[in-house]
Please model this.
Amino acid sequence: MNFLSIFVLIPVLMMVGLFASNNRKQLLTVMTIGASLLMIMSATLTYMYLTERAAGNVAEMLFMADTVWYAPFNIHYSVGVDGISVAMLILSSIIVFTGVFASWKIDPLPKEFFLWFSLLSIGVYGFFITTDLFTMFMYYEIALIPMYLLIGIWGTGRKEYSAMKLTLMLMGGSALLLVGILGIYFSSGATTMNLLEIAKLHNIPVEMQRYFFPLTFMGFGVLGALFPFHTWSPDGHASAPTAVSMLHAGVLMKLGGYGAFRVAMYLMPEAAHEMAWIFLILTGISVVYGAFGAIHQTDLKYINAYSSVSHCGLVLFAILMMNETATTGAIMQMLSHGLMTALFFALIGMIYGRTHTRDIRLMGGLMKVLPFLGVSYVIAGMASLGLPSLSGFVAEMTIFVGSFQHTDTFHRVLTITAVSSIVITAVYILKVVGKIIFGPIQDKHHEELTDAVWYERVAVSVLIVAIFAMGSAPFWISSMIGESVIPVIGQLIK
Amino acid sequence: MDYSSFLQMREEFSLLGVMIFLLIFDIFATENARKYFQPLALVLFAAHTLLNIIPRDAFEVAGGMFQYVPMQTYIKSVLNVGTFLVLLQAHKYLNDFDKGIKKGEFYFLILSTLLGMYLMISSGNFLLFFIGLETASIPMAALVAFDKNNRRAAEAGAKYMFSAVFASSISLFGISLIYGSCGTVYFSDLALIMTNANPLQIMAFVFFVVGLFFKISLVPFHLWTPDVYEGAQTNVTSYLSVISKGSAVFVLFTLLVKVFGNLVEQWQPILWVVTVVSITVANVFAVRQKNLKRFLAFSSISQAGYILLAIISGTALGMTSLVYYVLVYVFSNLAAFGVLSVIEQQSGKVQLDDYNGLYQTNPRLSFVMMLALFSLAGIPPFAGFFSKFFVFSAAIDQGFYVLVFIALLNTIISLYYYLLVIKAMFLTKSENPIELVASDGAMKLSLVICTLGIMVIGLFSAIYNQIAVFGFGI
Amino acid sequence: MQYTILILVLPLLSFIFLGLMDSKFKPKTAGLIGTIVLGIITALSYYTAFEYFTMYKVEGVYQKVIPFEMEWLRFTDLLSIKLGILIDAISVMMLVVISTVSFMVNLYSLSYMDGEKGFQRYYAFLSLFTFSMLGLVVATNIFQMYIFWELVGVSSFLLIGFYYSKPSAVAAAKKAFIVTRFADMFFLIGILVLSFYTKTFDFGVLTGENPIVFAAGAGATFMGFSVLSWAMALIFIGGAGKSAMFPLQIWLPDAMEGPTPVSALIHAATMVVAGVFLVARLFPVYYFQTPEVLHGIAYVGAFTALFAAVIACVQTDIKRVLAFSTISQIAFMMVALGVSGYEGHEGTGYMASMFHLFTHAMFKALLFLGAGSVIHAVHSNEMKDMGGLRKYMPITNWTFLIACLAIAGIPPFSGFFSKDEILAASFEFSPLIGWLMTFIAALTAFYMFRLYYNIFWGKDYAVKAAAHGHGHDDHGHGHTPHESPFAMAFPLVFLAAVTCVAGFIPFGEFVSATGADYHIHIDMKVAITSVVVALISISVATIMYRKPSTTPDKLAASFSGLFKAASNRFYIDEVYLFITRKIVFNSISRPIAWFDRHVIDATMDGFANTTQWVSIRIKSFQSGQIQQYAYVFLFGTLLIAALILIF
Amino acid sequence: MEFLTSFFSGPVPVEAYLAVSLIMFFAGVYGFLTRKSMLMILVSIELMLNAADINFVAFNRYLYPGQFEGFYFTLFTIAIAACETAVAIAIIINIYRNLTSVEVGNLDQMKE
Amino acid sequence: MAQQIIFYVLAVIITVFSILAVTSKQIIRSATYLLFVLLGTAGLYLLLGYNYLFAVQIAVYAGGIMVLFIFAILLTNKPGENVKTELPIRRIVAGLTSLAGLAFCGHIIYWNVKKISVLTEMADITPQQLGRMMMGTDKYQYLLPFEMISILLLACIVGAIMVARKR
Model:
């Protein structure tokens, strides 16, 4: 049993445990233990990874393991992690952990909820540990489909419509992706599905790359909320229950960026070079467009969803800059956005649970009655607009500095465009904070609200601590990621 | 005249033995003994399935009229398993219907069609093939009209009969032209003769192949499918949709490669177009269906389109993927039909709206149904995902990128309508959902097998790899 | 000088501690913790200044000292954010200014903010601000400065919005944050451009002797200007945002919504001069690489100074008067930098700017604290609610007067010396600027004394109160205003004392562009001119405002256009409002939101609807008629055969 | 004219048989598509099957006289036709019992 | 010459009655025309020298199938009752399509079939030979299909009885 497979095994065992549980208490026990184990595992993994690296292991991936699965297609169950995956695993563990606490009182059908939730986790963890194209795609889809039921059953508002839209659009993305993956496999000689080996072969003809790169990139881009395929995001996030929004915006959208980088760019560097400008424009639009879109919204979740479009756009944007710094920044932005957007959604869920509205026009002065949530919301907002010492800053700055190092003027001008998003972000964040957290209380019913209870505090505090930790001491995570993007970047600038 | 060579046809003879035994038993058994007809039949059939599950070396019988290759054992086993599941699901119905007097006919007819499919699969000559085709379709018409006092079933029987006969007439005409242009109806000889793309041969091929398209129910030869599926008794429908179709796709693949291999330039575009049209049209129709049986009919048409992706590749990879796909399809579709049939038998409800809120009252059935639909839609980790992936791979391997792309876009539509059912069961609240449905032991067994199949087949690669051992096997 | 790290760490700890404990402390305890920490920091700063100015002078030039530096975030091999402490003359000077004012404000607030809800939070934020501001001034590289720059911005946001349930305070906080953030964006872009060409963030390298770092960007131009000019101009915009230069000044008057001590600390003495400090920090770059930008700074500064001074003359809210005065004075500093040379005598402007920064911080803080004292007493910001307060509040009166004299440039108060140097430098640069600045100095004297008289003289407060009959009955302080308690009075007295003596500090010996000694010598011609002009202005103000008179109204009537425009701050706010509401919100954001819903989303929905539509349209194919089925069958067969044979 | 004489004077070509069978086949198709009674449709089907039979026989006799493949094909096809007819008539009778009509247009309960 | 004439006569009979069979308004007439067609076909078999086939055709078709038809017609229709007329538009469309198909297939067949108009001499097939072929298991021998068609017949009988019987 490979060490990494435990990450997939734990959620599987959680599902078994959930299946055997009879009441909410048992369910929560299973979930808490499982989520804590995952946290511990990712901490252990990080420690082991860093020790191994410090010991001078320079392999591209560590803790590799490989088992033949479907021999005729060269499908292997192969796992391995580098700094990027480790970072993503940490993120996933944090989000899953906090997600459990955020859905402490989920109703109805708690058992089913947690079952689907665990299935989703399987997909997420599997995606990040695998190095095999097929398995990666499989996990990717595993992570998608529970969304439908999670949103459809436990969601709010136009949940059925949103769930359907989200599922179909993401499946559309994965349809593009599948063609891309198969194309990669067959045009690289159909000898291996292993990412690293394909990259080493580096023999996909450029004219084939021209077809498969956009397909793959767009396929992952849909999940990464690439303009104009982002419209599932506002509706989906708005309707999803708290923990699902957290997991989806926090981790699932990262699958897009991670995949675009790991698969599309890594395996098809020539086409990436040729076509980057198209996607740079699209992502540039995403960044600014998402931010402007957020200004006009009145629903908290919509605001945050558009904000995610903007932030995730920045991830893809930075990846396409194809230099080490920008890419490192992109990965850090994934991490940072995951944390803060999860925090946002957690808080929005908690506020919604109390006020029963998410319309910013109907709320105000919550700081007075909900000081803990209020302060946390402000912190989340500050992280989102890139306040130094919070995670958003380090990520965005790395991206901006990195992108600006590009020697081409076009890229630098685009970077400046992207930089402008920090102001727009400030506008909508402050608009919300000023309206609902500060200001006078709008609704006199809100005066009787009670502040966060312990499990909510756990969820929120963990996220805030993580945001602060990353924002204040970015060095180790940045270097961990930085040295892991080198092989990919090396491929790209070869 | 050495008849002993016939003994090599083990599958056929063992099936024939079961048939004859059951027929005689049905006719001559006492009223008391007849109670044991179904268990006995099931046991016998299971034994037949198990006995014939090991592939043997290739051989020929009757001067090449009957050709066996090991791959055929797999497809026959798949059909056996499917038939077994159908019989399990029909258990209760047969006991209840008409006080159970028509069990014997049901079994005999089903098994004779199965025998016909065996012949189609193993034939090495158009004559035997045509006999097999007819054996697989004429008794089927009687089966469709099994519930004959039901107007819908009668109507479905007639529709199936006339459509099938029309198709086989055209097919026969095609065969006659093939004979006319090649001078033989032996497959092995034809493959050698049919080298240059003579227009007559091409036309003959088209006339012939549409007969198979009809059986697979590909657009535009599919129009009978929903009507017949809707009207026929549910277990017959499931048999029709799974077994009949499964055998036909295998045969289509074999014939295209074995006989018409030299016309590949011609049949690939045909299949290309038919695949695209089938998947798309079926999906577009399915979106609107309110009756679940019709719904599954259109779904099965589009599934057939996906199977064509494996056929169009015409490679060993495609063959393996095809058999695998059929296997997975058997489990998935039969799970769906099993749920459908148990609910229909108890409550008489087959409309989509009736399924609203099913999860509240029948969580297990809803769960099985959901797994089945997810598998059909190709969602991991269920088996359907793997089978879809493999057929796509097989097609991409031969460079059919655009085709696969179109097929993949269609999966979105198909996902949409599968989700509609899931939505009804899980999301929509209902005032009066279907009450708790109790299924009998046989049905439970079949659903358990199906569920296991859906969950396990994909994750255990041994099955695919085992099929792949015989690669092409034509 | 390792201990300087404590100057940063202590307030940070204080912030975290107070922030986390929040209401677990009694308000007084929290206040005392904050104040004591600040006291320690002040002591440390003084000690640092002492040590630095006595020990780090090598061959007559003050050295730059970096006692502490660590890599915080690495971008590329060349570019990384380091956090460190850079000790040189201006940063030491800033340390002293900030810690002093901050300490005074902390002390003052103990009494001023007594009984306010969120007292603990207030002290936490003050600590945060102090931390950020100190971090800003000791930054070793431009990115560190940017980091603290942002932190300063957010502390300012939090403090302005301290009364968060008051919509106007929230709006002001938002405005302050967004406007400065907008400027920061240019700052950031400037940093990006600069670092792209120079491959460094480090101040030491940028301002060092060796201009080789600029070689890469030397030839490059963008839209007709050299890229370095762009970079430095963009960086200046960042500074302009914080320092409220035209046209980014709009946030500062609104920021007066915050508690008055905060205004004193942030919006008068420390944060708003960050822009000046930034330009001073990068002065060698401006001077040697992009002199045209430096001149631009001078012109922007001059215009802002004039603009703000004119507005200050007609404002009626005393804090706003002070706010515009602040803008005007900071603009003075900018002008001084803009007109400055580098070495020796030519560096007058630089030295003057820093000197004025120093003195201004003291007397402007004094003015604000005094104003706070007044507001505390009368519970209003409006001049019309005041008058004749000198009888009730003698200490406030005297200290306020001293500050007014200082800002008006009357010797021997500190303002005279620093302003005189600025004027001298301006005259050297160009007589036009010189005279303009002199005129503005006159305006300064006028509006300050207008303010002074309106508060402390004029119609008696009690009479006014009786006449208006409002504003006092609502709260429990009674009718008579009274002098402030010790905690508030002490800072006033202390700062007044500093204002009195600061002018005699031989500032040039400590701070100059090159680090070498610079001897201040007062240019008598300029000095006399300015003093005379100031005295005339004061006299005019005395005539107009000492006693209640109708002259101001008449004047206002005769210049009604100008008066109205100035009272409305020349409608700059409205322009901004137009840009944000009408253009950004309504012309960009709303269309985008609409586009997203009705075009992009509708396209996606369109696919679904089209499928449904097609589905309904083609249902007639499935007619239920076998013969039609057969027809389709036949047709399909023939079609396939025909197609395959034809093609 | 010459064409006609040569046509009648020469030996009967295989095309002539094929022409007959083709006409018969498409007559059957026409009948299938247009007749209202199911029995008539069945008649049409017989025509179509019979047409194929003629083909087999003619091809066998003219082109491939060596073996009897077409011959036997026809033989078995006749048997199959008989089976088809039997079951089809059974089904038609069943329909008649249910609907008291053998009109094919009445089979429209299931559609769309 | 006689052969030709017989052939053309048969051809005309088959063609005309085929068309009549599918266009006649009276169902019983249709059945009768079909009988003529089948007999004509039998004649063609005879013409080509396949006497055995001729016999089977007469026996099975004319003897068996036609009886079934007549029986069914009598069961379901009053004799002489006219079949309802169809929509003319459908007839035209179907007719045109059939004609198009005819033309198309005719064209393809005519230009691609091996043009042999001379009958090779064929040795008489004795019943023994036929029987041996029917019972043989080698190539060109037909025991296997023979057995299988018996199963088909059995299945069809079972099916037909099941469907047709009253209960």
